[in-house]
Design goal:
This protein is an alpha/beta fold. It has four helices and 13 strands.
Length: 254
């Protein structure tokens, strides 16, 4: 129950930009959270179709994962109480309306979160634990095609966070991506690579129509990370990066 609280890929250019092998984390039990924009029922379906794959413990490589939070989104889950919600998880999956750097939580209340101004995520010294944030929304994970200086806005939130994954164009939600993506992660696929593959496979099945902004359905995927965390997967991932923009890398479909 939802609780109220440099390769060619399927005809799309996959591009990387960089600004400027560390030990793998110790095996342990990991937590997954799901957070839903109240605006539309399709966002409930999106998050559920991901977290349903982790209702019981799933062993992936050297780690085990389980869904322990599934809430309607509220701004405090991302900012003032982030250490008890999105930043308490190892992986947080978010769905809703979005804009550049922005994820809506509740349209009727005019609520949302600007990722440029959230607290530091993944900072173990200050109670954070987030490694991976997946956002299924329009435009939120802005990157090089939108901004020449794409890395600076992410500096505050990336303080131990390994990867932010989503779309940098219009995104059509309510599709098979979340379930497909979860299965790829359970097979120990790369975190951002599995997302890009799931997006492409959804595009393949619906014969490549075009979104209203000119991007191909269901949208063009994007991801922000560090060079040291590019090959992270749920079964084994790099030690927490130092934080800030040094070594930051973006991948995006174009």
């Amino acid at each position: 129950m939802l609780r109220n609280q440099k390769s060619l890929l399927k005809g799309l250019l996959l591009l990387s930009c960089s600004v400027a092998s560390i030990p793998f984390a110790q095996a342990a039990d990991r937590e997954i959270g799901g957070y839903v924009d109240k605006a539309e029922s399709r966002f409930v379906r999106n998050v559920w179709n991901f977290v349903k794959n982790f209702q019981s413990w799933q062993t992936i490589g050297g780690n085990r994962y389980k869904e322990v939070q599934y809430y309607y989104s509220e701004p405090f889950m991302f900012d003032s109480l982030h250490q008890s919600y999105v930043d308490k998880m190892d992986l947080s999956y978010v769905a809703g309306h979005g804009n550049q750097y922005y994820i809506q939580t509740n349209a009727s209340a005019g609520q949302g979160v600007d990722l440029r101004y959230v607290p530091a995520y993944g900072d173990l010294k200050n109670g954070g634990d987030l490694e991976f944030m997946i956002i299924e929304s329009c435009y939120t994970v802005s990157t090089a095609p939108e901004h020449a200086n794409w890395w600076t806005p992410y500096s505050p939130m990336f303080q131990g966070l390994h990867q932010l994954v989503g779309f940098h164009t219009l995104s059509n939600s309510d599709n098979g991506i979340p379930n497909n993506y979860a299965n790829k992660l359970k097979a120990n696929g790369g975190v951002w690579q599995s997302w890009f593959n799931a997006v492409n496979e959804e595009r393949y099945w619906i014969f490549n129509p075009t979104n209203s902004d000119g991007s191909p359905y269901p949208g063009l995927a994007s991801a922000i990370m560090y060079s040291s965390t590019q090959n992270d997967r749920l079964g084994s991932y790099a030690a927490d990066p130092a934080g800030g923009t040094a070594g930051m890398v973006t991948w995006y479909q174009h």
